[in-house]
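Quick one before lunch.
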Amino acid sequence: MAQLRVAVIGGGWAGLAAAVELSSADAKVIVFEAAKQIGGRARRVEINGYALDNGQHILIGAYRDTLRLMQKVGVDTTQRLKRLPLELNYPAAGFRIKLPQLPATLHLVLGLLGAKGCTLSEKLSAMCFMRALQANHYQLTNDGTVAELLNQHQQQGKLRRYLWEPLCLSALNTAPEIASAQVFVNVLRESLGGSRAATDLLLPATDLSAVFPDAAARFITAHGGEIRLSTRIASIETDLQINHEKFDHVVLACAPQHTSALLSKITETSGIAALLETYVYEPIATVYLGYPPEVTLPSPMTGLGCNEYACLGQWAFDRGALNGQHGVISFVLSASGNWVQCDDKTLVTTLHHELEKTLGKTLSLPLWHQVIRERRATFSCRINLPRPSAQTPLHRLWLAGDYVCAEYPATLEGAIRSGITAATELLKHKPIGGA
Ligand SMILES: Cc1cc2nc3c(=O)[nH]c(=O)nc-3n(C[C@H](O)[C@H](O)[C@H](O)COP(=O)(O)OP(=O)(O)OC[C@H]3O[C@@H](n4cnc5c(N)ncnc54)[C@H](O)[C@@H]3O)c2cc1C
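Model of the flavin-adenine dinucleotide complex:
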């Protein structure tokens, strides 16, 4: 039987996941990537002599397919990811919750009961909330906003401010007032509602390209595939020709806005293009401040919130504790908010002061800084957002990308799962002239 020839357009985590699965099924895979490097929205950037990331990322233990694929391509997950029990620590607000290393659901019950900086009634109410979701199998009758869901279940006070709302922002990159409650509940089902290990934080202990994309590329080429960088695909012919090369299948693994541009040129897929054109996007900024090596955080991931005023930043990460980049603190500013209007200088000054407040001491000014703004970091994960499936009306053209994984918000795990699904569906089809 002739070897299956598959084009994968887009070398982000979704495209690479599809390419890895197809390569291991003996397909000949060519990955076309517009940029000079692979990794898409989760990749290494070289700045100031440091291997940093285009955006600080958080993974969690529930990212089962990401972990499986990392292992498949030869990444030692214990080396590349720092596994820590879930801890949300806001020193300036006096709030802290840390889940103990105990089996589910004891870890959640004792973790909530041991939370500092909130009342007993808030803790009991949070337990009732989780129990109510579980009793309904994490399925809401109707989608609404996360804010409505929290109101409906009387989730107020400090646990709302320092647990539920930050979880919503971190996972969905969408403000609770507009974010989809059902997708949020899906995330809770897989994390807090899952095993203890599923709740663990998995913080990159290296740059993001070394977490998966680099090893995935090596795996693909070792299996006879190719990665063609700096190759932007302008169109897909209906007979699946790309740049005058004919393929048995094409996996289109770009972000929604780039996918819709390609799909709108094909009659059969113009409906999906029209659907994707309705998507709106949320930004994320990652701000790196370089301090002397002795500047450290109380937890590798520390919350910036305080009770007196709303902080611009949400989280600060101690890159020294995570990957040996001592003194480098990365700050995450998720979803559209006041920070978007701030210029870089204001962001840097404000975050420096928020860090001082968090640490309760004066710091010398940062030695260097770098602001990276991703204006279309993720799709805005709103109520009843329609998602296309992997299969398209054009025979043998498949979709992958974080937006295809309907259960999940825009995340690495969503991207990886979508790539696996596209590969699995594709492999069920026989190649042209196949037996
Ligand atoms: C700053 C930031 C922080 C984030 N934080 C987290 C986090 O903490 N945890 C988490 O799980 N997720 C996080 N995410 C989301 C996560 O990074 C994305 O969901 C995931 O990387 C999307 O992968 P993808 O493969 O679907 O898309 P992409 O990464 O967008 O990959 C698509 C690829 O296609 C290429 N391409 C586009 N058009 C063409 C074309 N015409 N021809 C060829 N190639 C093309 C692009 O260059 C790109 O490399 C974050 C994202 C950002 C930006």
